[in-house]
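Question thread 4412

I'm putting together a teaching handout and wanted feedback from people who do this every day. The idea is simple: show students a protein as raw sequence, then show them the structure tokens that encode its fold, then repeat with a second protein so they can compare. Below is the first pair exactly as I plan to print it.
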Amino acid sequence: MKFNDRGKVISPEKLYRNTHKGKIMGVCAGLADFYDTDRHLVRILAILAAIFFTKVTVCVYLIAGLVLPKRPSWSYL
């Protein structure tokens, strides 16, 4: 768990957009943080999904980018 000086903690059960490590909206980087995997692997899987399921992947990505909250700035230590 990550704590800051105010005692706040990032919940491991909550999915955030990681805008510091993200390329477009931070969705893939947020998913990589949530599942504790390499963000490049998640991006490759997203690109493959976009090739085979273009409309669905783009819609899901855009919705996730709009709905998911940004990761709090104090959590980047």
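The second pair follows. I'd like the answer to focus on this one:
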Amino acid sequence: MRRTWIPRLANYSNNQVILIFMLAIDTNETEALNRTTEESKLYGDLLIMKLKDSYRMWTIKTLSAIDYILESCSDQIGQNQSQPLFLRLTQDVLVNPKPLFQLFMRLSNTSNERFCAGAETVGVVVRNPGSIWYVPNYVYSSPNYGEYCQGCGFFITFSAMEELVQYGSCLEAVMYIDDAVITGVMRQQLKIPLMKIPENYITWKGPILESITRNETADRYKQYSIMHNQPQITPTEYGEIWNYLHSNNLL
């Protein structure tokens, strides 16, 4: 990411975007902890949580990141004339910096100071214990999550962030499907509006590289802010996809 879209996003935004990487590392993983600590000293953009990382930690990681931003970035946020926004991205997405920053600016200049925004979906609660999305009935009894933002990338305003963190701190049990929990269940309880954003915000078609090379209308990929690759890709594949898109003027 540091070698692909991050420098270009910084350029387009004139460094108006603050980037933070959320990492969870078990304290027993000494080598990994030392390595990331050194990287954090070098770049100053790693939020390291000393706990065993897993899919079940996503909600805690996201709420922790929001809490960190509220506490540590308030000075920078206060200097911004437009509305500050939090954008949560997963590691398996490819960012197209220009349209993403344009979307950032459009959302930050809306009159509503309190909303979540993303590609809207409605999810059914999975009751199969063998699934990574399993949620037992005693944790959440409703059969569905209602409307929420697809998890690979969603926006939250500063005002909504404060409410969500306060609400999350009062929960006895936190479900780990962070997109459904934060932008669905918690958002609805707090009556925070859900803002729909354009369909060309995101594409889920993947693998990205195969999809683009087969597609005669590859230019349409220039419109997308976020491209979610399926299945998850390695860092090497990530770089190859970026290089292909960049060299063919698709970003």
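Top answer:
Good format. For the second protein you could add a caption like this: The two ends are 15 Å apart (CA to CA). The chain is about 40% helix and 20% strand.
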